[in-house]
Design brief:
Blueprint: H1 10-25, H2 32-61, H3 71-106, E1 109-111, H4 120-134, E2 141-142, E3 158-165, E4 171-177, E5 186-192, E6 195-200, H5 201-207, H6 209-212, E7 216-228, H7 239-253, E8 258-264, H8 269-278, E9 286-289, H9 328-335, E10 338-342, H10 348-359, E11 363-370, H11 378-388, E12 392-397, H12 405-417, E13 421-423, E14 430-431, E15 434-440, E16 451-455, E17 467-474, H13 477-491, E18 503-504, H14 509-525, E19 531-536, H15 542-554, E20 557-562, E21 578-583, E22 588-589, E23 592-596, E24 603-607, H16 613-617, E25 619-620, E26 622-625, H17 629-643, E27 649-652, E28 658-660, H18 670-680
Parallel strand pairs: 1-6, 8-9, 11-12, 12-13, 14-25, 17-22, 19-20, 20-21
Antiparallel strand pairs: 2-4, 3-4, 3-7, 5-6, 7-8, 10-17, 11-15, 15-16, 16-17, 18-26, 19-23, 21-27, 23-24, 24-26, 27-28
Length: 692
Amino acid sequence: MEEKYAFHRRDISWLSFNRRVLMEAGNEEIPLFERIKFMAIYSSNLEEFYQVRVAMHKAVARGGKSEDYTPAESIEILKRLHILIAQQIKEQLHIYNTQLIPALLAHGIKLYHGTEPLATEHTEEISTYFQEEILPTLQPVKIEAQEIAYFLKNKQVYLAIQARRKADGERHFFMLQVPHAELPRFVHLQKKDRFHCFAYIEDVIKANIQILLPGYNVEACHCCRISRDADIFVDDLPTEKMIKELPRKVKKRKIGAVSRFEYEQGMPTSLLHTLMAFFQLKPEEVIASETYLCLEDLAKLPNPTEHSLSDTPMDAIRLRGLDERRRFMFARIAQRDLLMHYPYHSFEHFLRFLHEAVNDPYTDEILITQYRVAAHSEVIESLISAARNGKKVTVFVELKARFDERNNWETAEMMRKAGVNILFSIPGLKVHAKVALVVRRNKADRMLRSYACISTGNFNETTAGIYADTALFTCRQAIVNDLYRLFLHLKGEMESPKFRHLLITRFNLLEQLRTLLLREIAHAKAGKAAHIILKMNALHDKEMISLLYQASQAGVKVDLIVRGICCLVTEQPYSKNIRVVRIVDRFLEHARIWYFSNAGKPEVYLGSPDWMRRNLYKRIEAVTPVLDEVARKELIELLHLQIAERSKTVWVDQSLENHYFSTPTTQIPAQKAWYEYLKHRKIQTPVSIRHK
């Protein structure tokens, strides 16, 4: 089936998404510091891409094992990635040099840049700052072929120095770590005229480099940095061994294989070749950049002006009555299913949900999954309080959440010591479901009305403020029972659970997805109106894409809202009825919501999985049907709003290019429109409801 269809490479598609982020950095219609933020996000995204995806392809190209790629395929992909990334970096630097730097200046912020001479008063100030603040942190290290190799840390800016010894004229080479982890990357200088002035810390060091090497004449001093393979593999280890191995594996991330070495353009060939030989770098790993590396640090650039130069804050919406009623959330959910849309709604509602469970005398057990745990989390504090109050608390903590392994482990240990029952990762699987369940029983051990939450995002108060997610709260017995069975399975107490309503990967999700897609195809073939709207972060699985191609050929209208990877190729004979749109705005679109028109009897689902192979086959994911009519209509409204032609929405063509719609960009963006919709609709205060 698949041979007759075309599919984009996932990594090429991801670069298309990251370029969409870069487009916001060049968008003069948004506030300046929002543009700077998108520039930083673009750089941070690309760094992680090198640490994970490029590093993986390099490993496969060297003969490493992969279920998805041959060495020849990885070599071909790496060549293509190199070309595309080089084009994007050129665009990024053009935006930075010709748009952002002048725009800062126009708003009274002078960021010294490149070879621009310092003002006289700043020269003296920089010298003083260097002597008092920076110099004590510096330790240049001579690199010699016969010495033990000097180790370059991941994502850290260094200065590579070439100098001649005054005594005999002999040339030597040094490495110097820039201390911007201890000191600000941007040094705030005294105001000159009407300008607030800043300098990069590496420029301050360069201006005073001769002080560090008094017995040498410095010939060259240039920035460089290294990106390393950050993926760690613990998937197939038994739980006890995984826990034991985790600290060593996380530590190994810091010394992973090189995926790229960036250096500042203008570096003398003699210095570059010395570095390549000393650090055993291959030519394909070495990339010339401009003066400033680690542009993700632009997110830390202060705004000292009286102007905000940022988006106007959106005050999170709180449901009326939240502060007045002791059991507000329970009462509201008992009235009817409740949808929360973060960050438009306050995450306080979920925290209140947990607080009510902690203090409810009938709460017998709280069960919850944690994929990425927030630092100093009030969610975790509530779970610990519940355990100390005598409730049974079970938390499934995923130790394989990339870059959060150590934090998840440390938080799990804290909860375990407080009496929380901790379940850890399943070998070969990630538990990515975002679900919580409050089980309530009376003294006779009879289950009372219990409450469930199925979310598209983590129960994390930090990400809830920046990720656009949706959560469904319900006390429907069928959903509660299904969720309880899922937790029994995670506990190892039920091997083959049957689910009536919830769709769970590795049990019934794939089968139901096929059924839903084929049903829509059958409706179209029968001459009925057929429409599918799918909102997700990534679309990669070839079987699902092939079914979407078949739906298009049958006449089904297919609208895809895919933020990131999308391997489906538009504008083909078999995809003529498919449109792909992408939204990049102030919040990260993260919700997964699926709509099937079903010949006038629409069905809507929400949950945790994207349509990636890893989500559909190698994880435990949870999806719920939205059974409440009001909630279902609300989500359909959201989906139609997001597929409309708006200023922050682009459509993606067959070449993965992002195109703004031709309609005027004065249209209100989808995120702001949804916030206004939620803010101004009437919310009914819940009536008094007995919880037994």
